[in-house]
Amino acid sequence: MEGKLILSRHHESDWNKKGLWTGRRDRHLTEYGFQKAGDMGLLIKDLRIDQAFASMQVRSIETLSCMLNVCERFEVPTEHSSALNERDYGDYTGKNKWDMQELIGEENWNKVRRDWDYPIPNGETLKMVYDRAVPYFLSNILPKVKEGKNVLVVAHGNSLRALVKYIENISDEGIANVEVPFGGIIIYDVDDEGHIISKEVRQTESNVPA
């Protein structure tokens, strides 16, 4: 019997709270982020967790730690990889999202945030994130699921969007409509190729100026 694949986004960092594009910059969770990460742990307390993965960034590591502590899963093996890191926002890193919306216009702003292969100066497209996150998923995460383990992955809005695109066979155009919300848990049953068989979403109320 194959295990469950559990995806979760880190919760609010100090730059999320300020509405800044964070990307590869390392920022800690806020007090609210820590609180809600604990609530996210409660959402999966009924599940066995056999293995956990997170990015190399502190906000995802802190979220994972909070979730596992609340679940009282203190001995879960954990692996960290930069392949799961957030999208590099290049020259937009540290910029206020709403100021940038006014500067570059609504249409371009939406493309920056949502589109599949829309460039950012000196940064990454979602396609580039996909090209590093999905191979890591296939080589390191999926085999654990196929062994029958329940695997928790805590990462970032765009690295998770990349994984969801693969898992759910979403088109390049369709991915613009996909958002992995703060406070949300996605629980998948997947086939041998890592594609969706079934999906359950659990959500704790979260108010983050994403």
From the N-terminal CA to the C-terminal CA, the straight-line distance is 38 Å
Q: What order do the helices and strands follow?
A: EHHEHEHHHEHEE
Helix content: 25-40%
CATH topology description: Rossmann fold
- The number of helical segments is 7
Radius of gyration: 16 Å
**CATH hierarchy class name:** Alpha Beta
CATH superfamily: Phosphoglycerate mutase-like
Low-pLDDT windows of residues: none
Report on the biggest sheet. Answer: 6 strands, mixed
Strand order of the largest sheet: 3-2-4-1-5-6
Q: Label the CATH architecture.
A: 3-Layer(aba) Sandwich
Mean pLDDT metric? 96
> What gross morphology would you assign?
globular
What can you tell me about this protein's structure?
The protein has 210 residues and is α/β, with parallel strands linked by helices. It has one domain: Phosphoglycerate mutase-like (Rossmann fold, 3-Layer(aba) Sandwich), CATH 3.40.50. It is built from seven helices and six strands, in the order E-H-H-E-H-E-H-H-H-E-H-E-E. Strands 3-2-4-1-5-6 form a six-stranded mixed β-sheet. A hairpin with a 5-residue loop joins strand 5 (184-190) and strand 6 (196-203). Helix 2 crosses helix 3 (58-71) and helix 6 crosses helix 7.
